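Hi all, long-time lurker, first post. I run a small reading group and we've been trying to get comfortable going from sequence to structure in the token notation. Rather than ask abstract questions, I figured I'd post a concrete chain and ask someone more experienced to write out its structure so we can walk through it together at our next meeting. Sequence below, copied exactly:
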Amino acid sequence: MRDLRKYAQQTTVRLVIGGLLIIVIVAEILIAVFYGREAALGGAVCILISLSPLFLTWLFLLMLEWIVKSRQ
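-- Answer (accepted) --
Happy to help. Here is the structure in token form:
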């Protein structure tokens, strides 16, 4: 029998990553089309900086999960 919780977690992670990638790629293409390559590079830097708190929060929660599982 499959572990349905693990499957659901994998699916959620993949959907979030895919959604973020689509948003970032579309945003960068639109910035490049309307404002040029230099603005698209600046936009990429801003997007990466703005996504860093999300990544750090995810990393912190992953670390907490690892700590809890290792103490069981």
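A couple of things your group might point at:
Residues 37-70 form the longest helix (34 residues).
The mean pLDDT is 92.
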